[in-house]
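Dear colleague,

Following up on yesterday's call, I've attached the two folding results inline so they're easy to grep. Please treat them as preliminary; we haven't cross-checked anything against experimental data yet. The first protein's sequence and structure tokens come first.
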Amino acid sequence: MRKSLLATTVALTALLAGGTAQANDGLMKDIGNSSNWAIQTGDYANQRYSKLDQINKDNVKDLKVAWTFSTGVLRGHEGSPLVIGDMMYVHTPFPNNVYALDLANDGAIKWVYEPKQDPNVIPVMCCDTVYRGLAAANGMIFLHQADTTVVALDAATGEVKWSVKNGDPSKGETNTATVLPVKDKVIVGISGGEFGVRGHVTAYNMADGSVAWRGYSMGPDSDTLINPEKTTHLGQPVGKDSGTNTWEGDQWKIGGGTTWGWFSYDAETNLMYYGSGNPSTWNPKQRPGDNRWSMTIFARDVDTGEAKWLYQMTPHDEWDYDGINEMILADIKVKGEDRKALVHFDRNGFGYTMDRVTGELLVAEKFDPKVNWATHVDLKTGRPQVVAKYSTEQNGEDVNSTGICPAALGSKDQQPASFSPKTQTFFVPTNHVCMDYEPFRVSYTAGQPYVGATLSMYPAPDSHGGMGNFIAWDAGEGKIKWSKPEQFSVWSGALATAGDIVFYGTLEGYLKAVDANTGDELYKFKTPSGIIGNVMTYERGGKQYVGILSGIGGWAGIGLAAGLTDPQAGLGAVGGYAGLKNYTRLGGQLTVFELP
């Protein structure tokens, strides 16, 4: 049975990343070639798994640095380079420079794109000036700049083929996320939930940048592209204007639900999957109701944008538990039954397993035992059962609710997990952090922060004393298989390989490799700065390489990145991660590893 299941999963990976004419044939071919790293997520399924096995659990201890590249930019370096054939494409945080490196010529810089952006964008960006990486398709490199300009560059020359503005930074609209190139479209999101931005995803035609469709997170059906009779929530039609009728008055117009996370795609269903973020403001008393469709998993048709199904994980969010984390698609056994699954590790601390075709909720379990804001999730209604003691809504405005686990940055933030079809295991970088949360009344002004809460963060009490764990997760049963404690949050994306190892980075700056079956540490190397980037791998000339961007920053590292010292600055993160200054400093470097 296990052999059959593995074969099914491999077939899924081939379908999602290797050979159907339904999607962009060129990109599918590039993704299907394990020598490349052709998309930020590894494949359309977001599995972040490589079939390369030259580096394995027996020899990974011998890894050495092959070469390095300085990006010339400080602050947080998220995402990873792309490798397609002999070319590597490297991005930076703001101002979002792009470097094309010729791997056939000792990494020589073939071209550079340096966008000119207004520095006034920087203070409008929540939680650092990060960018999660480039995308490639049809001989073009796609960049979504901090100022929301979407740019298509000629992959061979760096020439601008087209550009389009996706938002307005003067209203708080910015971008930190990568894009999804699929079929003949480029699909992008928007950041700015802390400024009252109303979230949306937009599909641009790849050929010329014209708009194909835009779907908002909240608003009337014409805006959300929700069909009241056909779009379902846990199997039931959502009804008319579901994106407005759980909001008071016109609050949905500044409702948040931004879309700065990861996108995945299933060619078989022609659906893309993503999550929406927190409702605005962070003060729940100011926005009665469930605040749909913030904190929601969306399944949309990529051709039309119409939503097929939705699932709201945290109705009427009271803790800033954005739902933007990646959706990993895998065919696995769920409680003994074969399922076309979607697996999502939410900020709220619950690991969800769903049927990605129908939207049925199959599993919802805590992937950090310290999660306490809710006792469990009711699988029939999908609603978390909130503990009154930790309810900022019930405790009220100007009351400091203490000991809430997880903190607002979640049991996992945007740092992507990985899945190994070989071991049927998900590998999850996590935060082990709790908080105190005091909401207060705030008024909306376009382009100004619209938060309305003061936070303090600290390590989960009565635990190992650290602020992170790297875990292996059984999504079919909703159970931790093993857990490796870390001193700080694991803010780096994981990479699983056929060599039975899993890579990840740490905020202190270590690249680590662990045994996929046991979690035993097999290798570590200290890079020049803290790691919040995602590990990638590629092959060239018959040799496997592993690459990682280091450069401390992001929400966890915002104190160092922006020079902040007030413990409550950085939306509460500065005090929680103050100890990082004893381990690392700012930097911006790509480090590539090889075997001797």
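Below is the second protein, in the same order (sequence, then structure):
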Amino acid sequence: MDRYEQVIELAKRRGFLWSSFELYGGTAGFYDYGPLGSTLKRRIESIWRQLYVIEEGFMEIETPTIGIEDVFVASGHVGGFSDPLCECSECGEAFRADHLISDIVEIADALSNEEVDEIIIEHNVTCPECGGKLGNATEFNLMFQTKIGPGNGRNGYMRPETAQGMFVNFQRLSRFYREKLPFGTTQIGKSYRNEISPRQGVIRLREFTQAEAEIFIDPTEKTHPEIARFENEVLTLYSQDAQEKGETESMTIREAIDNNIIAHEFLAYQIALTNNFLQRIGIAPDKLRFRQHMKDEMAHYAIDCWDAEIWMERFGWVETVGIADRTDYDLLAHAKMSQEELAIYKEYDQPKMIRKFVVKPDMGKLGPLFRNKAKAVADELQKLDEETLSQKEITVTVEGEEYKVPSELVTFEEVEEKVSGETVVPHVIEPSYGIDRIFYSLMEHAFNTESVASEDAEDEERTVLKFKSEVAPVQVAVLPLMGKPELATPAKEIIRKLTNRGILASYDESGTIGRRYRRNDEIGTPYAVTVDYDSLEDDTVTIRDRDTMKQVRTSIDALENTLAELIYGKIRFEDAGKLQ
């Protein structure tokens, strides 16, 4: 078995991940999180909230997972959220066309369908299932469509990302933050994409969890007040130039900004924060890089976009986080669709004198002439320049219909006035995390097998998940040396104290102490507390460290405080008691 198979086998056997709907034969693209997996996932999300909600101050909201059609028409998902589909003409199996040529072209998803077809023909790519001839690539929209309400109902879609719920709440969010830029909001929740061929376990799911932040900033001020926190940190960058050369670069955040590799400080700060989070939860630094989108794959609305990619043994470099400057695209799109202004009034430090071109339609005469269209005609007149307004008859278009306006009904002039501020449409910085991919990569990076001496003096293989203690689903195992009442009673009292402290602890009295250590090593429990007969005499217990298998003896009275400090890295293991 390769590492992926080993990890998935352990995950299914020990209650981390299960294929969904197994009772009915299952279906691709869906996974259940078992008792340990669900807890591990929640710990990842909790640390994410710690960074973004508590430390960065981006309060969390929760929006529906179903959206009305207007939202996704405005966002562009209805018209353009698709992947290239390729079907086998013999067995009828469907494939994502760009994945069929990913071994031939490095960035296959940047190619047009015609270019994909040419490569398939040129390299004689055939159906992976039966070897048959493949048809031409066509676009397949990835959204799940539904109806809201009975009968014909209203068109709706399962959201393909959590972001749109935050954009459509911009007005209320801006008022919540007293209309002071920058401000941000976060959301963790389910998203849905009807993937063509999800054949990569939890790497490509049809229902998945995203953790996203939408940070609204002044488009003219993209420095970050806290950049000094990260500017000397070294990242592994795979920039556009580095990709041309075929090699990564190591440099500090400050160097990347000064050399115009990362567009600006605010984006660089978010890239560094992503790096901080991923390493904190246990992603191996040497298996993490940040890849910049190439010019031909960059979204048309983005100034700059980077992916945090994590190395996985079977799948290679996999995108797990996208960090982008989305400019004002989303707010302008929703403003146009909703006919509501999505902007903020930015007050100047000092008032400014500006020259302004002012158009003044005569509403008293426009009203009788154009009736219910008068205001719309006036709004269009105010958008015109001096040359157009100077014509004898002015033409404006309202809802596709032309209206002729006599020039004497419009006056205009250039005036100088003092202004205290201006209305701006914020730009959006978006870090978007794929929690399921991070979950799997964390398990793979934590997975270890090693040879250790067993109780019968023969070496045996120990499987251990070396999770950071902060994210381990079970943080402490409490093990009476034997399952006798005199040892079980104090062990269960220790469990009660630990749970009162907020530490998730398990109790295990089945089998030899060595076997119980191995069971807990396998699920990543960082510390095991053993209650033995000495504990009854001197009120001390043994704490065993999962990774080193070293043991210390410590007082029961201080045990919950000692373990809490160990779990959250406040003390070293050697300082937790007397080494045995």
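For the second protein, one point worth flagging: The first helix runs from residue 3 to 13.

Best wishes,
A.L.
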